[in-house]
Amino acid sequence: MNQSGDESINRPEPIGSPLRAFDAAMGLLEKIGARSVLDCPAGRGAFTHRLLEKGFEVQCADILPEAFEIPGLECRLADLNKSLPFDDESFDAITCLNGLHRVWARGRAMREFARTLKPGGTLILTFVNNQNLVHRANFFLTGSVIHNTVGPPHVCLPDAEEPAAHFRYPMSVGHIASGLRSVGLKWGGMSSVGLSWKSIALAPLGLLPWAYRPVAGADAKEYCFLEHASKLPALFGDYLVVWGQKKRA
């Protein structure tokens, strides 16, 4: 369903996404000239609202559509571990903002994104950077990349009616690169929408990934995606934007 922007609608609050990530995603959409956009997962509708304000043709979906807060616009039920309720080649772009780390069947989600993108379409993903220098040091010291995918009660609810809605894992740039490759999407690029000042304080350690790349084994280079993992945004970024593109027909 399409809807133009309406200033009378209260703007929903984002769920976990910094506003700078919204700005970066919007900038990419405007740069590529997208018109039809799928926002999935849509959450409360914070980014959907911004898309409507800019005049995009928007459809949205979420595993908890009852949380969607934009009146008059349908948010369809979609579990990214399964199939999306949209036709092949429906969208110029798909935005998955702060969402893919909540999906256990990452390959299925990527396949569905690729299926529903038009040829030449763009997939935009944003997520917490779990592999900057602070998180790498944290893993060395504690055995966990980040605490909030391991310990808090909200990630381990044995009685949850919808367990998939509560799943989290410490997603990395390598996970994204692997997913894009697995479904034939081309790596488009990566940027940071904020710096991790603690990682900058550990800047001398950033030389280690660069020193390791030439001597790393073939499997590490190919399947750990060291080229991407040792780039400056991955080492020092606080929050990342990664995008991929579908081949043109």
Question: Can you give a write-up of this model?
Answer:
This protein is an alpha/beta fold. It has one domain (19-245): Vaccinia Virus protein VP39 (Rossmann fold), CATH 3.40.50.150. The protein has helices spanning 19-32, 46-53, 106-116, 133-142, 173-182, 197-201, 207-212, 218-223, 226-229, 232-236, and strands spanning 36-39, 57-62, 75-77, 91-97, 117-128, 186-195, 237-245. It has a seven-stranded mixed sheet with strand order 3-2-1-4-5-7-6. Helix 3 packs across helix 5 (173-182). The longest helix is centred in the N-terminal third of the chain and has 14 residues, at 19-32. Residues 1-8 have low confidence and may be disordered.
Number of domains: 1
What is the H/E string?
A: HEHEEEHEHHEHHHHHE
Average residue pLDDT: 92
Strand order of the largest sheet: 3-2-1-4-5-7-6
CATH superfamily: Vaccinia Virus protein VP39
CATH topology: Rossmann fold
Pick out the low-confidence regions.
1-8
Q: Estimate percent helicity.
A: 25-40%
